Amino acid sequence: MAFFLLLFLVFLPPEKAIAETLRVTLMEVRGVVRLTSTKPFSVQAGGSRVSEEAAYQVAEISLRKGVTVNGIDSLQKMLTFIPQRSGKLFVNGSPYAGSVLVKAKNGALSVVNEVDLEQYLQGVIPSEMPPDWPMEALKTQSVISRTYALYQKRNTKNGEYDLPASVLGQVYKGESVAHPRTAEAIEKTRGIIVTHKGNVALTYFHSTSAGPTEDADERWGIDYPYLKGVSCPLDFASPYFSWKKEIPLSNLEDVLNKSGVGAIATLTPFSYSKAGRILRVRILHANGETFLKAEDLRRLLGYQTLPSTHFKIDTFGKTLKISGMGWGHGVGLCQWGTKIMAERGLLFDEIVRYYYPGTELSRY
Predict the structure, then answer these.
(1) What pTM value is reported for the model?
(2) With 80 as the cut, is the pLDDT of residue 255 above it?
């Protein structure tokens, strides 16, 4: 059945895919944003052209009464910078396909890249998965990253952008990271997405599960049948399968101070998920007792400092000595598991349907 599904998808003409444009927020800057281009570009405000075609090749953008370009205040809250057909825009030296929107927001400049979905993937796949991994793994990542972006576009409540260019969405670095192997994987899966009962699926993914994947309902209250967690026994080759960290107690107190936490006496796990990850921690401190989601603790400390919520505290003193397993939130597809499955001969559609049971492959 999987073979015939693949044949159907491969021979379905790519033209059937409808062009989709994403708005990806790149950064918020309190200062100057520098735009350059391989060819001169134009500027628009609210659909009206501010400059003639080929008016700019360098733009120093800052914020005064409005968005200021090369020292001239436009009195506009948002400007769109549009390259010529064969031109390429560079934001602070990094190349991006499509156009760039710069908007005044909370005393800063919000920079958004408006880009075709398939071009967007050129900056995502090499950022999320090593390009030298097996082709079926890269194709798998292409399908789920395309699906994740499309889900966010169709379901986001944010009127300014569809998703961020960071780990809070998907890591997106524009054309500076484009690679021939990931470009091949993107092209070979062009337009293919994951669906469930006709709807675009929410395809969360993470680096290393180091055990069963997580139930999204238990972790975040997201009750989708294809995000219930599956066995993941193949990611043992990951460098993040197990790890140890040392965190100064003073660092922990600093990040928790804004939450009303005083000098900390103890920090202990309070509840666990079915997959064995910590859901909440209990903190006894000078101001009383605080219960905190383990995911929030990880976010506050930093994802590099606390790679996952699957950990135990070995020593509590002036320094917390922690041992843990895995990297990421544990929901959805495990990338290191995907790598090993691809090395063992599984095709991308088989890997997708393993990690998201009950889903189908379709074209958008």
Answers:
(1) 0.90
(2) yes
